[in-house]
Structures are given as structure tokens and as C-alpha cells.
Amino acid sequence: MQARQNGVPDDEMIAMSESVAFAKVVVADALLVPVNRMVWNRNEAVKDFKEKWFTTCLGLRKSFAADQESPLSQSNKPPPQLWSHHNLLNLNAQVCSDRGVSTLKSLNFTAVVRSGTYVYGNSGPNRAAVKCVDQKGESSFLYLAVAGPEKESVENLRNEIARLMSPSE
To answer: What pTM was estimated for this model as a whole?
Structure first.
């Protein structure tokens, strides 16, 4: 809803939700809410939407818990891998996020989406997030994370993205 109220185009919002079925439902619901012109009304729309979906999710969680045990306790699968990296770059956040888009695309990530200075993409069962935060002057702080089911694949993707995002100067 925050993205909707900030004027993110509908097609970008839909692309952001492509990998998660539940996210599609939430985005579709957000697209039904008109964009408000007044900042106060925008903030209220975001607050109301957040409360609505929090209540919905809480109800689903309680209902699910009553019907069965936690899916994690039933599964023999290990939890997903999550590997991260951070670095200070001599680039402003916009240039850093441009590099994030080109890096993920060069590594054949699909559904590469940018939201502000955040960049997301998929590589098979793995998901990467690149976040660039402006620092004083012309520098930015880079946070990156890769998650997926297999340690080696996630680690290798994280290392390759970090290498391409933070070249030797």
C-alpha cells in the first residue's frame, strides 16, 4: 500500500508480487484502493490497509494452527539458507541501485524489479535483494542478501553479486 500511495505504477507492483501467490492477492487488493492526493489521507490508507491485512493474517494463522501442527515441524527439509553482505561504495544510492539492476540481469536473474533504491530478483529457487542507502557525499551503503534452499547455490550467488557490486577501485 505504501508503494501504491507513493505512485508506483501498477505493472511494477504486479511484477514485485510475481513470485509469491499470497503477495498477488495483497497487491490486487491494494490496487483497488485509490491513490490519495493528501499526504494525511495516504498515511491513513496505508495504516488502514496494514491493520486489515494484519488482522486477516492473524486470523489465518490461528485457524491454521488449530487445524494442524506447524509446517516446519512436519517437514524434514532444512530451513532456507540466507547469506548477506554489506559494503560502503563510492557511488550515490541511485547509481548503486542502477548497478544492482545490471548486476542481477547480467547473472540471468528473472523478475528483476526496482523500488526506489531497492532491487529484487529471482534465480531459480533463490531470491536476491540489493539495498542502497545514501551516505554523506557521493557514497552509499550497500546491503545485499540472497536466500534459497541450497547452501552452495546461495553462497555462490551472494559472492558473485558482492563481487560485481563492489569492484576493486
So the answer is: 0.56
